[in-house]
Amino acid sequence: MGKPTGFMEFPRTERRYVAASERIQNYREFILTPEDSEMSQQGARCMDCGIPFCHNGCPVNNIIPDWNEMVHRGNWQQALSILHSTNNFPEFTGRICPAPCEAACTLNLNDQPVTIKSIECAIIDKGWEMGWITPQIPAQRSGKRVAVIGSGPAGMASAQQLARAGHEVVVYEKNDRIGGLLRYGIPDFKMEKHLIDQRIAQMQAEGVRFRPNSHIGSEIPVQKIMDDFDAVVLAVGSEKPRDLEVTGRNELEGVYFAMDFLRQQNKRNAGDTVSDDITISAKGKRVVVIGGGDTGSDCIGTSIRQGAASVVQIEILPKPPEKENKLMTWPLWPNKLRTSSSQEEGCERHWSVNTRSVTGTDGKVTQLNAVEVEWKQEAGQWKMSEKAGSEFSLDADLVLLAMGFMHPVHDGLLQGLGVERDGRGNIKANEQKYQTSIDKVFAAGDGRRGQSLVVWAIREGRQAARAVDEYLMGSSELPR
Question: What are phi and psi of 360, to 5 degrees?
């Protein structure tokens, strides 16, 4: 290592943000760019730990110690090459990944892991700034055609790898813009969309063709795709949201799925006009967000920027501990209390709360009625029960459902293909071959493994691309 004692000499430096009072006035990213010298010092903290657990902590198995050392030495271009060898889109993960690699860092045993995520983001941002990132055009073409259905991170990663292997790749996207969840599910203040656009331009130069407004199984027959291509990759995501089945949910105006709310704001940020008759706005409203995950947090930040009167977030699970027991959890991802930047901007949080009903007047929601719950372990399973006399109500003009996703949408494409699904409703395909029950049809991302992280989607897309390449050519030189 460049600085064997660096972890003892230099403290961990956290990301710095624009002040909350300033950043909530717009939808721009608010991470302050660190100095190169600061990142060099942080890279020097990567210790010679012998077994770098961060490799397995990272779903794409980033070679983290190597690019940490390159940053420490000031060799940013080599760091970029190492980073790109395992991750097609570090600008995405460097912004929105929860960094399980840092949880697995050996230095996390004393709560001082290397700032892996910040260093990753700094590497890729410098790569774009310096013009080091260029198209990788294959030396020869295979003559094989592959359709990738879905343009989220799994679809984009799969398409780029397959194009670099020499195949003709066409990406179909049902929405009006490319990017899937990255485009319409992630708020701009977490990841601005020019980052997607610059990757699209690179991929187009590499030979990938993009077809937005192309809904396979609806406007375009499934059979046409099967007839026109040698292989098909299903990267459709997990878009079936978990609903709130309580009294008043369907009778009252003001209860919406989180993605419908977030999608509208991202469209406005892109310059689109959302008609008044379908607008979902938090302005001046008392907002209740149901769900304590990342999507719920995104709803909080968006609501605050729209001018909500108040924001309350409720979660059915119990409040996590302030600190994990490292000897029991490390190097795995621990269950502990985390506070997002959006929650820091102004949000009341409640745990162990179950919604019973929503009530209102004149056809509009005005209250959410809930009860506190207790969780106890019985026969190895956690059981929930309501606490007697703990009923309460929250004033609510807007209720946003951010309770996760169940499985991919089955209507249209999946039913048209007749592809086999697993017990959870996901596309059935194993992690070695990624091949479905239909010949030449492969699956990757959330539609196969269930709702997960962007970094997992990138891994799945890369792995599926290698499997497709092997299927088409008999062998593959794409990295596993």
Answer: -170, -170
pLDDT tens for 329-356 read 999 999 999 999 999 999 999 999 999 9
**Comparing C-alpha atoms, which of 324, 303, 271, 286 is closest to residue 402?**
303
pTM for this model (two decimals): 0.96
- % residues pLDDT > 70 (the chain): 100
Phi/psi at 461 (5° precision)? -60, -40
Task: Work out the percent of the chain whose per-residue pLDDT is above 90.
Answer: 96
4 pLDDT band (50/70/90 cuts)? confident
Q: What is the dihedral of CA 176, 181, 182, 185, to 10 degrees?
A: 100
Work out the angle at residue 141's Cα, subtended by the Cα atoms of residues 137 and 146, and round it to the nearest 5 degrees. Answer: 95
Q: State the chain's mean pLDDT as an integer.
A: 96
- Tens digits of residue pLDDT in 59-77: 999 999 999 999 999 999 9
- Tell me how crowded residue 178 is: count the other CB atoms within 10 A of its CB: 22
Residue 288: φ, ψ to 5°: -120, 125
Rounded to an integer, what distance in angstroms lies between the CA atom of residue 316 and that of residue 292? 8
At 3, the pLDDT band (50, 70, 90 cuts) reads: confident
- As a whole number, mean pLDDT of residues 375-387 equals 92
What band does 135 get if pLDDT is binned at 50, 70 and 90? very high
Residue 386 bridge partners (DSSP):
373
User: Could you give the maximum distance between any two Cα atoms of the chain, in Å?
Assistant: 71
Report the distance separating Cα 255 and Cα 443, nearest Å.
Answer: 33
Residue 458 in contact with residue 88, Cβ under 8 Å?
yes
Average pLDDT over residues 209-231: 97
